[in-house]
Every structure is written in C-alpha cells, then in structure tokens.
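Incident log, support desk, overnight shift.

02:14 A customer reports that sequence design results differ from what the structure should imply. Their input is reproduced verbatim below. On-call engineer (initials T.W.) acknowledged and began investigating.
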C-alpha cells in the first residue's frame, strides 16, 4: 500500500508539472487521478447536444467515454467496427467535422509538446484542422522527457497498434522501431503541437494512470 501511495503522489506531481507546461504554451489543461475522474470531466466539458468525433484511440475507449457519450444521447462518429472501406473513409471525415474531436496522444513532453504519429492521417488532421474543440485524454505513461524521447515513444506505440490491427510491420517483426521505409509502415505523418492552433480551442486532461499504448 505504501508503494502504491508513493506512486500516486509521484504521478500527481509529474502530471501537475505537465499541466503547468501546457498552460505556459497556451493550452487549457488539468490533472485528474483516475480514468473515472477523466470520464466525469469529459461529460462535463462536452455539451449534451454536441456531436463528437472519436478517431483511433484506445485511451478514450478504455475509460468508457464512447459508450457514455452514446448513452447520454450525443451523436458520436467513429470508424472502428464492421463497415465497408467507403463507409470507413466517410466516418473519418465525419469525425473531423464533429463539434468535439475527442482523442489521446502518443506522447507529451515535460515541456508541453503534444506528439502524434499517424498512418492514415485522419487523426493528426483532426487535431490540426477541424471543426471545434480538441479534447485530449492523456495517461501518465505517455509523458516523455523531451522532444527526441517523445518521438521515440510515439514510434514505439506503433508496435502494439500494429499488432492490434494484425499488421506485420517491420517493427512488429523486430520488436522495436527500425525506422522502416516499406509499404506496410504505419508511421507516415508526424504532428507536433507546440501551441494551440489559431481559431481552435484545446483542452488536455492528464490522467494519473497508465492508459493506452
């Protein structure tokens, strides 16, 4: 129990420091201790009549946000699940056009830089250019020391993501990033958010638990 309490206390210190770093860059940010608290804040921040786009994110689904929003009556757009190639493509566009883009990040530096790597481009596109609020939910495990460390962490996250999608990428075969250039590579677009983009609102919830890859 003492060890658990120490970890909780350390995560709070680290998480709140990250919040301060994000705020210095102009982002709106907050720290919560658990995924349950993050879900509560999501439901408080997102209006009941807002449409919500949820791209490929384990974190958002793991805390139950997708189900909770749908149950409450929000119109939720997502491209996961059984659908044709054409339907999936259309769903990705609807995600980015929603009132709120609810997502996570591959990495967050201690200096407040938000890092994401994408294979299709819809997720980073929604973060960079979309309709309304961008709401991030980021587990404490996503924190990286600096930009170099953050990019390494983002690339490493591609491995479990590729395994989830049954993709036999070079990194899956090697067990680590090999900076591949083959056709199966899932690392095709890198986005580093240094400040909120002009004309859009960004809100980041840092969670003191390990969430996502």
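02:41 Re-run completed on a clean worker. Output:
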């Amino acid at each position: 129990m003492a060890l658990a309490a120490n970890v909780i206390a350390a995560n709070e210190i680290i998480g709140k420091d990250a919040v301060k770093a994000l705020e210095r860059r102009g982002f709106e940010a907050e720290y919560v201790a658990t995924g349950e608290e993050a879900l509560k804040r999501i439901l408080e921040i997102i209006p009941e009549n807002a449409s919500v786009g949820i791209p490929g994110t384990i974190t958002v689904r793991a805390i139950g946000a997708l189900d909770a929003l749908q149950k409450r009556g929000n119109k939720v757009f997502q491209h996961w699940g059984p659908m044709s190639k054409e339907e999936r493509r259309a769903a990705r566009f609807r995600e980015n056009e929603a009132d709120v883009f609810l997502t996570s990040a591959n990495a967050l530096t201690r200096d407040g830089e938000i890092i994401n790597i994408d294979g299709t481009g819809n997720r980073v596109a929604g973060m960079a250019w979309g309709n309304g609020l961008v709401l991030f939910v980021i587990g404490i495990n996503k924190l990286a020391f600096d930009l170099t460390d953050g990019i390494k962490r983002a690339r490493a996250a591609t491995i479990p993501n590729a395994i989830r999608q049954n993709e036999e990428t070079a990194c899956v075969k090697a067990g680590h990033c090999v900076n591949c250039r083959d056709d199966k590579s899932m690392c095709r677009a890198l986005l580093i958010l240094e400040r909120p983009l002009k004309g859009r609102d960004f809100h980041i919830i840092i969670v003191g638990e390990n969430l996502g890859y």
